[in-house]
Structure formats: structure tokens, C-alpha cells
Amino acid sequence: MKKTLLIVVIILAVIIALPVINLIRWSNLSKKPLDIIIVDKTVPTLEREHHKPFTWILTNERFVKKENSASYSYTKDYYGFFPQRPLREKKWDKKDYRLSDVINLADKNDAIYFTDTYGVFFNDWFRGINKSRKSRKIYGGLNNNDFLLLKEMKDRNKLIIMEYNAFDYPTAQFDSFRTQEKLGISFSGWTGKYFSSLDTTGTNFPVWMTAMYRKEYKKPWTFKKPGVVILKEKDIVVLEEGIQLKNTIPHIITDAASCQKYGVPASVAFDQWFDIIDPLQNKVISKFKLDTTPLGDSLLINNALQNDFPAVVQDPVTQRTYYFSGDFATYDVPFWTARLKGVEKLKGVLFSDKPDDTRRFFWLYYKPLISGIFTDYYVSLNKK
Fold it and tell me: I need a labelling partner for 124 at 20 to 30 A (CA). Which of 12, 156, 333, 375 fits?
């Protein structure tokens, strides 16, 4: 009995000691001062899941603000939509930069990351209403000031990262076109997502897709299995498990050189929204891959699509401008773990060895990718 109790005490002591040790290790890391503009217009909840993972990485890697050497706050240090407490009252505020602020912001800051520019809409803000694809916009969309700030940052050879859905609705066509032109890419108009079930009785399935399908194909929506839906303004393509797809979850594939440079795996599952772009002259670091059957290939070809397309592209000249063709910065990571060094090594708790475990994306791909990009950039700035 005493021996069992001793073992339990030792186990509890180790469980308590490990976070403390990792907190001390994190505290001893050298701070890396870097002024970063974070833009997130899609914040319908207090969790701020569309930029919190990025801020988590900044904190974990000890990137701090130059002015006071403080870590970045995911609740305060961003431009965009700010929901107010209590959330049930549906009050909100916004933090925008004006045209007169653009030059000063570009001069003062080292980097900018547009984590999400889609915005907040009536259907998102007032939960339980999800009947249409496009509802009334409350706030959002890439605008003229965003483009001008991006342009000024690029002209100064600053680090720029932009994510999925900067070019589609609700961004105006003119702002979309010139932003694509500035980034040197071309948006096809197609976006898509994996769904663990295409059954419309599921709680989170966007039922407006079924109306699109019925209108285009003149037949009912009968899909029930997991699958991928790809759509544009009036067109929709459905790829279902066992028919058009072998393995339903899209994977991000990275070549050997980029794997070595950024410390990312050769393949990782991804279940969030993505868009399809033409990289033009940009370097493709990673690409999405759909595991299609011959029937799936034919369906894609009929819509001028392929089963692989860019996931991460980089400006080939300055190598300081990136576009992520997926909703990368969305993950419900517990922020208190940001101050623990080596927390990502808790394999089995945070994620598994299963190739289709989508939790692996944040820990094995997004975290090392962001860390690698910003660390390389920080080192290059401090070589001057």
C-alpha cells in the first residue's frame, strides 16, 4: 500500500514539475523584438480563433513588441473586429487604420499578417441563422487601405503574409484584382472544404450548398459520406468518399528541400477551407493534394480543375511575401501553453501518429512554418 502511494506521489510530482520546468525554460529564452501588424476581421467569438494560434506561436517563440518588450496579446494586438462582453448583447467595436496611418505603419512595423479578412456577417453574429451563403455584412472584406498598406510594406521589403479568402466575397473586385497583381498570383474563383459528413442533417453543415447543387445539376442532394466540396459563384463540385475520392481528407504535400528548411512533414492532413490559385511566377513551397479516383479526376477536369494546387507560395525575388491558400491560422489552441517550451513534444496528448489526425496540422506544419519564416526574417534584419 505504501509503495503504491509513493508511486502515485512521484507521478503527481512529475506532472506538476514538468510545466514549471518548461515555464522556466521558456522564460530563459532570448526575446526577439519585432513589430508585427495582425489583421483579423473575422472574430465572431471571444476566442479569436482566426489569429490566436499565430499569436500563440509569437509568444512561444518569444517574439515581442519593440516598445515595451511585451508579448503579443491575442485579445488586443490586432486590427479588425472586436466582440464585446457580454457576448449575448451582441455589442462590438472595431480597430481600423485610416488612410493617413498607412505610411507611418509601414515605416514603423517590420511585418504584416492578414490572418483573415472575410469579416463578420449577420448569420455568424446571430447564431442559429444559417440559411444562405451570403448574408448581410456587418464588417469585413479587404479594402483600399489594406491594399495600400500591403503595397507600402512590400515597397519597403517588409515581411508580408496573407491567407485564404482575401480575394473572394466580400472583397470588392477591384481591390481583389490589384491585391492579386501585387502578390503576383491569380485567384481562380474556386474555394473548397473537407466535411466529415456530407449529410445535411449534421449540425454544422452549410445547407445552402444543397440549393446550389440542385440548381446546377437538376437533381437532389443525396450525399451522406465524408467528402470535399469545391465551389465558385454559381458552380459546385462534390467529391464523395469511395466514389470520387479514395482518402477524403486533403493533404498538404511539401518537397524535401522545404521540409528540411522549415522542419515540416512531407504530408499532413488539412480539413479547413482553401482556395485555388495560379502561382504564376511564385515559388510553390507546399501544395494541396486530393486523393481522387479516375471518376474524381474526370469530374475535376470537366471543371478545369486538378487534384493538386498550391498551398503556400513565396515571392521568388524578395522571398518575403507569402500567400497561404488555406485557413491556416484557425485552431483552438489553449493559450496558457504558449509559455511552455517544448509543449509540442507531448505527442499522444496534443495529436496522434495517425496520418489523418487534423490536429497534426498546427503542431507539425503551421507552427514550424511560421516559426521558420519569422526567425529567418528576424535574423536577416539583425545582420544589417
Answer: 333
- What cell does 25 get? 525554460
Q: What is the pLDDT of residue 332?
A: 87
Cα–Cα distance, 51 to 56 (Å, whole number): 9
For residues 62 and 33, give the distance between their C-alpha atoms in angstroms, rounded to a whole number. 8
Q: Which of 372, 251, 366, 256 is nearest to 319 (CA)?
A: 372
Query: What is the side-by-side strand order in the sheet with 236-240?
Result: 236-240, 227-231, 186-195, 274-278
Is pLDDT larger for residue 113 or for residue 90? 113
Among all chains, which residue has been given the C-alpha cell 514549471? 20
Supply the pLDDT for residue 340.
Answer: 85
| pLDDT tens-digit map of 190-199 | 999 999 999 9
**Residues with Cβ < 8 Å from 317, sequence gap 6 or more?**
none
Contacts 24+ apart (CB under 8 A), 69-77: 69/31, 69/33, 72/36, 72/38, 74/48, 74/335, 75/48, 77/38
Positive or negative: CA dihedral 115, 120, 124, 130: negative
The pLDDT tens digits of the residues spanning 158-197 come to: 999 999 999 999 999 999 999 999 999 999 999 999 999 9
In angstroms, the CA 106 to CA 108 distance is 6
Q: CA Rg, the chain, in Å? A: 22
159: phi then psi, degrees, rounded to nearest 5: -75, 130
Q: Are 258 and 206 spatial neighbours (Cβ–Cβ below 8 Å)?
A: no
H or E, element range at 369: helix 367-381
Break the chain into its structural domains and give their ranges.
1-28, 31-381
Give the sign of the dihedral formed by CA 168, CA 188, CA 309, CA 373: negative
